[in-house]
Every structure is written in C-alpha cells, then in structure tokens.
Specification:
Blueprint: H1 2-23, H2 38-61, H3 71-89, H4 95-115, H5 124-138, H6 152-164, H7 168-196, H8 199-210, H9 213-220
Length: 229
C-alpha cells in the first residue's frame, strides 16, 4: 500500500539525514552556547508543561460532547509534546523528570479516552472482563476457554480489583495500561541510550513511541496484547 511506501521513504530519509549530520558533528551542539541558561529554561518548560496538562484535564471535564474529546484538547496535547521536545534539548541532568513527563503525556492520551465513556471500549475487552469475572466469582481459573492456560492478564486485573475495590475498567487502567506505558517509556529510553549513546535521542525515542497511534490504541484497550509490554 501507498502508506507503507510513504512511511518507509520518510524513515529512510530521516536516517540518512541523521547519518550526514552525525558524521559532521553538527547535531546536539547546544552545550557550546554559553548564553543559554539551561536551568532557567528547564524550569520554564516544567511550569508550562504542567499548566498545559491541567488545561487538558479541564477541557475533558468541560467538554460539550459526551463521548468525544474536544478539539482544544488535541491542540493542548500538541503543545505539551512541543514543550517536552524543547525540554529534552535544554535538559542537562533531569532525565528522570522528563521521563515522568512523557509517562504523564502517555497517560493523558490513553486514560482520557477511557474517562469519556461509562464503561469498556471495543469488543475484546468485554470478553476479558467476562473471563476475569468468572475467575473472581468461582475462585479458580475455568477450563475450556482461550485464556485458560495463559490467564496472567486476567489474574492481575482480578487481584487489583479485589485489593482496591474499584471496578474492572479502572482496575485494568492501573494494572495493565499504567505498567505498559511506564515500561515502554523506560525500556525504549534505556535501549536508545545503550545503542546510540545519546541522551537526547533516547528521550526523543521514548516520546515518539508514546505518541504513536498504535501504542495509544493498545494502551487504552483492556486486552492481554496491551499488557505485552
């Protein structure tokens, strides 16, 4: 399909562009500019990020359509992504804080999709809800089902439901979606840092993964594949 040709061409172009810049040492040379106050810029970006985050949450609660996130929510998300990107390039030591911002951004993209609906989204999550309910009602793993011999996702959701007393949807958000987003951000950062030996690229890699469409899709659907991270 044309879409894969476009994506492949763009990816190849970016990689070639990166190789050319890297070979000429023309990238990530902000440290050579003594006029930049990195600490001050970092604080400004932090304040700006959390201000935009609060506005994102308010836009969800003040929306006019019941089952639709407003357009200003997505505008604020784009602004948050831009702020995190600039924070990465003006970052000196607070790598962990930027990773937390990326995780918060991923949760905002995923969990707001859950909040605007009264219960589960999609078809498969209802099947897994039913299977988890059977485990909780009977006290053992029922036989003859597709996940009877691989019930890790359902057991963790069931344990979270029993321990916290919340319903299945919020239990899945805490036990599956939150670990998935957190682990993907941290693992991609560590892998990028190890392979590329560049903090900026490692942080950017985590950011790009967390805002990719398929990652968002898998993080708000309560299915075992989303727990694969």
């Amino acid at each position: 399909p044309l879409i894969f040709i476009i994506v492949g061409t763009c990816t190849l172009s970016v990689c070639l562009f990166w190789l050319i810049l890297k070979s000429e040492d023309k990238i990530f040379d902000l440290n050579c500019n003594p006029n930049i106050n990195f600490k001050k810029c970092s604080k400004i970006f932090q304040i700006l990020f959390f201000s935009l985050y609060i506005l994102c949450i308010l836009s969800i609660f003040l929306r006019q359509m019941d089952f639709q996130r407003p357009n200003n929510f997505f505008i604020l998300i784009i602004c948050m992504i831009s702020v995190v990107t600039y924070s990465i390039f003006f970052n000196k030591k607070n790598n962990s804080f930027i990773l937390i911002q990326i995780i918060i951004l991923g949760l905002c993209l995923s969990w707001t999709q859950q909040w605007i609906f009264p219960y589960l989204i999609g078809i498969d999550p209802w099947y897994h809800y039913s299977f988890t309910s059977k485990i909780l009602d009977s006290g053992f793993i029922p036989e003859g089902y597709q996940y009877s011999y691989l019930p890790i996702f359902h057991l963790i959701n069931g344990i979270t439901t029993l321990c916290s007393g919340i319903n299945y949807k919020f239990s899945a958000m805490l036990s599956a979606s939150l670990p998935q987003i957190t682990c993907n951000v941290i693992f991609i950062y560590l892998i990028g840092k190890k392979i590329l030996n560049n903090i900026y690229l490692a942080l950017l890699s985590s950011l790009i993964v967390i805002i990719s469409n398929y990652h968002i899709f898998m993080s708000y659907r309560s299915i075992p594949n989303g727990f694969g991270g």
